[in-house]
Amino acid sequence: MKLEYTDGCICTSLTVDGKETVDMSGEALKEVIRKLLDRESDLAILQDIWRDLVMSQGEFEDLGQCEECGDYITRYTLEI
Questions:
Q1: How confident is the prediction for the chain on average, in pLDDT?
Q2: Beta strand 59-65 pairing with 3-6
Q3: Is-contact 57 78, C-beta < 8 A?
Q4: How far, in whole angstroms, is CA 51 from its chain's centroid?
Q5: Nearest Cα to 3, choosing from 11, 12, 18, 35?
Q6: Closest to 33 in 3D by CA, of 53, 18, 13
């Protein structure tokens, strides 16, 4: 299986064996992602994936701004 990610100017492209992912079914793309996840052992990368999924599917909550540093504090909650 050949996976390619091309980016730049107006040519962003994600392909699996030459087929654009936008032309694949959701289930077919999930199968490719599962294979990639099974290969991954780097905890930081797995945490990035986890964070992206919880942020995209979870409920957002604004917890306010830190009085010490000014940073904004947010929380995403997802029950599965």
A1: 96
A2: unpaired
A3: yes
A4: 8
A5: 18
A6: 53
